Amino acid sequence: MAFSIYDFNTLTSSIHQALDARFTPLSVQIIEWGLIGLSFLIFVALFGLFLVYLERKICAFFQQRLGPMRVGYWGTLQTVADFIKLLMKELILPNRADKFLYTLAPFIVIIVTFMAIAVVPFAKGLQALDFDIGVFYVTAISSLGVIGILLAGWSSNNKYSLIGAMRSGAQIISYELSVGMALITMIILAGSMQISEIVEAQRNGWFIFTGHIPAWIAFFVFVIAGTAETNRGPFDLAEAESELTAGFHTEYSGIKFAFFFLAEYVNLFIVSAMATTLFLGGWMPLHFGHFTGFNHVMDFIPPIFWFFGKVMAVIFLIMWFKWTFPRLRIDQILVLEWKFLLPINLINILLMTLIVLKKWHF
Amino acid sequence: MNGVINYIVSIAKGIKTLVDGMRVTGYYFFHPKLIVTQQYPENRDTLKMFDRYRGEVTMPHNEKNEHRCTGCGICELNCPNGSIEIISKTIEIAEGKKKRVIDKHIYHLAMCTMCNLCVKSCPSDALAMGQKFEHAVWDRSKLTKVLNQPGSQIMQDIKE
Does residue A100 sit at the B interface (CB-CB below 8 Å)? Predict the structure, then answer.
C-alpha cells in the first residue's frame, strides 16, 4: 500500500514518451544514455566535493577543533578551491614508469566507481540499472577496483608505491569475502538479488529489524569489511599519509590524484548505499508491520530523503570509525579478516538460513 | 572447547574497547562547546592569553613609576643571543659612596626568542613576560625598546 510514495517511473516514462514523439528510437536511446550519464557525472562530482568537505568538518569536530572556516561561509568553498588547485597542477610522469599503465590506473578506478553507482536505488523508479542479479553485480564490479590500485603501484616505478599497492591488493581481496558473505546473508533473508525487490521486501520493516540477530551481526561485519574495502578508516595502511608517503598514489599529482581521491569518497558512498539498501531499507520509510497509521505518517517524508538520511547516517558511522581507532598493521588487518570475520560470517549464514527456513523472523 | 570460549571472549573484549573509544570521540562530537580553536581576528576584543604566556619582555613599574632593576647585567649575560644591552651609570649617594644605577635597559624585540631566561635569572625579579603578541611594525627601529620608563627609579627596598 504505497498510495503516497511518489513513483519516479511516471516522470521517466513521460520524458521517454516526449522524446519518442520527436526522435527515432535509436536517437531516443542515445539521448537517454547521455542524460543519465550527465546526471550521474554531476551527482558524483558534487557529492564527492560535499563528502570531502563533510569529512574535514566531521574529523575536526571529533578532534575538538573547527576545520575549514575561512574559504566561503564556514569553509564550504574549501573543496572547490582544492579541486581548482588540483586541476592546475603539473602532471608528472616518473622516469622509466610504465607510461600506458600509469595513465590508465586512475581511469580504471573511477570507471569502476561509476559502474557501481549505476545500480544504487535512490528512490522508487530512480534506479538506472535494475538487474535481477543486482547485488552480485556490485560485488563483482568492486573487485575490479583492485586492478586500478595494483596498476598504480606497479607502474609508478617506486618501491614504496609497490609495497603499498601489494598490501592494498591483499587487503581488498581478503575483505571481499566478508563483504560478499554479509550480502549473501541478507539475500537469503530477502529471497532475491534484484535490488528493487530487496527494497520492496522491506516494506513491512527494515531487514535490520526483521532479521534480528543474524542481521545485526551481518551489519556489523559489513560495515567493517566495507571500510576495509575502500581503504578507509583504521585500514588505510596502503595510503597511510604518515607511513608510506601516500602509498600507491604517491607519484600521482593533479587530476589523476583527484581521480583516486574522488573515487575513494564515492566508494564510501557506494558502500553506505549498499548497507542502507540491504540492511536499512533503501528508500523505504520506516514501517513496522502492522501499525498502518504509523506507516502512513512515515510515508509523508519523500523516499529520497529517507535514502539520503540513511546513507548519511552510515557515512557518519564510518567516519566515526576512522577518527577513533588507530591504524591497523597489515598483519593485523589480515588476521582480522581470516581469523575473525570469516568464521563469524560462515556461522552467521548458517544461522540466517535456519531462521529463514523455520520462519523465525518477523 | 576452552579455545572456542577464549575466542568468543576475545571478540567481546575487543568490541568493548571499540565502543569505549567511540564513546569518547562521540562525546567530543556532540559537545561543540569543548572546541578549543578560537577564530583569531574576530575575537580580538575578548581575547586573553593564559597567565604564563611569553609574549615580550617587560619591566613592570608601579604607580610611583618605580621598577626593580639594579643594572646588574645578569639578564644580559644569560640572554642566548644578545637581545639585551644594559647601560648603567654610577651616581653618588652620601659622601664618596658610589652606587650603580640603570641608565638604559635596551631590549631588541626583533632578536628575542622569548626563552624566559632573563626573567628567571634576574635576582631582583625586575623583568616579566608580557601578554602582547601582535608585534608587527612597519618601521624596524620601533623593535628596539628601552624597558625602563623615562624618569623612573629603582624601588627603595631592593637589595643588591
Answer: no
- Please enumerate residues of B whose Cβ is less than 8 A from a Cβ of A: 11, 18, 21-22, 24-26, 28-29, 32, 34-37, 39
Q: Which site among B4, B16, B29, B37 would you substitute to test the A interface, given the most A Cβ atoms closer than 10 Å to its Cβ?
A: B29
Distance CA A181, CA A350 (A): 11
pLDDT tens track for A236-273:
887 765 565 667 777 787 888 888 888 889 999 999 99
Find the closest chain B residue to A57 by CA distance: B29
Distance from CA of A40 to the nearest CA of B (A): 32
- Which residue from A66, A321, A324 is facing B37, i.e. has the nearest CB? A66
Say what the pLDDT of residue A242 is: 55
**Contact check, Cβ <8 Å, A64/B34:** yes
* CA–CA gap between residue B69 and residue B66 (Å, rounded): 9
Q: Are A66 and B39 in contact (CB < 8 Å)?
A: yes
CA distance A320 to A354: 34
Q: Which residues of B touch A69 (CB under 8 A)?
A: 39
- Residue A27 burial by Cβ neighbours in a 10 Å radius (0-12, 13-18, 19+): exposed
Q: Is the ipTM reported for this complex over the cut 0.85?
A: no
Distance CA B149, CA B99 (A): 20
Helix axis angle, A254-278 to A212-229, nearest 10°: 180
- Please give the mean pLDDT across all residues of chain A: 88
Measured between beta carbons, the chain A residues lying within 8 angstroms of B25 are 62, 320, 323-324
The topology (CATH level 3) of B57-154 is Alpha-Beta Plaits (3.30.70)
- Kindly give the confidence (pLDDT) of every residue in chain A, 362 residues in length, as a single tens digit, with 9 standing for 90 and above: 445 677 788 888 888 888 888 888 888 889 989 999 999 999 999 999 999 999 999 999 999 999 899 888 889 999 899 989 988 888 888 888 888 888 899 899 999 999 999 999 998 888 888 888 989 999 999 888 889 888 888 888 888 788 888 888 899 999 998 999 999 999 999 988 999 999 988 888 889 988 888 999 999 999 999 999 988 889 988 776 556 566 777 778 788 888 888 888 999 999 999 999 999 988 888 888 778 888 888 888 888 899 999 999 999 999 999 999 998 888 999 999 999 999 999 999 999 999 999 988 77
How many angstroms separate the CA of residue A82 from the nearest CA in chain B? 22
Question: Per residue in A289-298, pLDDT tens?
Answer: 778 888 888 8
Looking at the DSSP bridge assignments, the partners of residue B98 are B92
3-state secondary structure of A328: coil
Euclidean distance between the first and the last CA atom of chain B, given in angstroms as a whole number: 82
Residue B35 is nearest to which of A64, A324, A340, comparing CB atoms? A64
Domain parsing of chain B, residue ranges: 2-36, 57-154
| Strands ordered across the beta sheet of B144-146 | B84-93, B97-108, B144-146
Closest-CA distance, A175 to chain B, in angstroms, reads 18
- Every domain of chain A and the residues it spans: 92-358
